[in-house]
Amino acid sequence: MHESEVQMESPPRVLITKIGLDGHDRGSRIVAAYLRDAGMEVIYTPPWQTIDAVVGISRQEDIDIIGLSSLATDHLIIPELMTTLTNEGLDAVRVVVGGIIPQNEIQKLLDSGVSKVFGPGTLREEIIDNVKSLALSAQKLKRQKWEEA
Amino acid sequence: MEEKRKRNQPSDIQSAHEEWQQSYQKQMGKQQVIRNRSGLEVDPLYSPADSNNIFFNERLGFPGQYPFTRGIYPTMHRGRTWSQRQLIGLGTPDDYNERVMKLLDSGTSAISLLPCNSTFRGLDCDEIQEVLLGTCGTIINTIDHMETCLAGVPIEEISTAMNDPLPFTLLAFLLGVARRRGIPWERITGTSNQSDYISHFVANHMFFRLSLTGSRRMLLDHIAFCREKVPNWNPVSVVGQHMQQAGATPAETMGFTLSTAIQYAEDCLVRGMDIDSVLTRFTFFFDISISFFEEVAQFRAGRRIWARIARERLGALDPRSWRFKFHGQTSGVDLTRQQPLNNIARVTTQAIVGILSGLQSMHTDAYDEAISCPTEEAARIAVNTQNILREEAHLCDVIDPLGGSYYIESLTDQMEVEINSVIEKIDAAGGMFKAVESGLVQAMIGESALSFQRQIESGDQKLVGVNCYQLDEDQEVEPAPYRPNPDAVKALAESFKEYKAARSKSTVQRAIDNLARAANSENDNLFEQVVTAAEKGVTHGEIVACLRRELGEGKPIIKA
Fold it and tell me: Closest approach of chain B CAs to the CA of A147, in angstroms?
């Protein structure tokens, strides 16, 4: 058993979604199945979500971590999502991105607050481990914020 | 199986076969079962024992003869090689025009037009974030944009593949440009790629969708209009590509595609159209994966099954209706972001498969397509891959060169059984329209995608650079992706605003009202109103918005 599983208070709540124009969802569906099989609470949406919709679902469903799949340049609007999340007070929510992100555009995403970018061919275990530990840190942050308030 | 083997072989061959079997088993020990992507078990060797020589004409025949297993034309690639039809689409209409003129100079014999994903989503350039515009295809919202795209392109001589989902605004723009140039519509040739709305519900790609019933009507009106007014245009291209990209196995892909074609043909029959005038204009569009022999067998079996369906099930009398004309695109799913130059080897292999399968038209992917829209050098290598295979490799010397191979013929028969069982399953569900409406097809594809992914995870399916022969990621330097010039995109967005403001408001409103009226009256041809609106300056986004209001929007029918 991984350390993170022992410490986890409640199973990670994950939102798997796609924003922007592209709908190719083979990858996001597979990742959703992986995470669900690993015991996480997965909220899965159809593609073509707006940024506002993703923020709304994240708040309503008390999401710990958002997994975005981008295969056709929709990652270019992820910085806009990151800003909106912060403006809406959801900065504890972690965001990871999977799919086709060109090498020279990865840093821009990380700078905007994305925690991790998974390229094609990333192995299942790597995704699960990262999502678990990031969700744990999101849960901690949320608890801190709640206690402070 | 053994019984059949004995029956089929003279005794001297039979004893040699047994001798081989014994030595094979002795050296190999316990036999590992090998399956192809469609899940069919493949033997280590095929021999005369596997060949079915009876009913030769009925099963294979000769090229150009029913059931066309060996090819749909008597001369095949000896008479005319396939059309080189590279998918082109990037940036602004000016960017597109520059790229298409270069490709025409380098030997491309037919063109295509791939619009920006915003266009695919039914939106104009003023409706989405500017940073996304033109990154995956050309921004086309108006008849003027189309005119710029095709400046200097002889559209009366060259065939054009429009990646143009319902409601077919790109074809409407093209017809408008033809009229401006004084070219009669009878001289316009090409294909409405992406007319297959069912495939857009099977897989969530990037297409805006009208409701299923609205889509059904739109396609039928489009077919009826083209038969009458643009007779040399192929209004229907049935697309297996989406299914295979979403994860369907090759056998499932062919089964679903043929079931879709049956659905469209039967819908046309219900409308009272003459079956031959419809089927002679049907074309098919497939992914070509790297699973070499399986793909060849899939296409050979597909030709045979379609011929029988068209003739026996749909009652077509014209032999041209029985011909399974197909375009193949080397599969992007097989390409890897890791070590991208390796993709040249993958694309070459896939292209050989396509050629040996007897396709009519082909697109070869650029090696950087797993990263972005192709750069110019990568696009040139992709075209030259076809040129090398055609000019240097002697692949076109003999028609159906794999025909008669013990393995290929046996596999063609096996794939045929498998494909037919998929068609039967769809028939049992009430046809493809219903099978997609209920989510059955999507569920089947989802399962196949997951099972293929598990094979990659377990290492049963090797991917060079991904789960074996990896390089340290840091050592790799990826080519920079194509991105349109932001100033050019900004200028285009500005001029689009001016274009809209300069139009006569009442003319535009009248055209939109007529479109809405046609949507609510079964007696009007809806596509005719789309063409009229496009010619009157109504934009792509405005046409789609009107039809979305009147006919409803198709929501995704896929669950995780």
Answer: 36
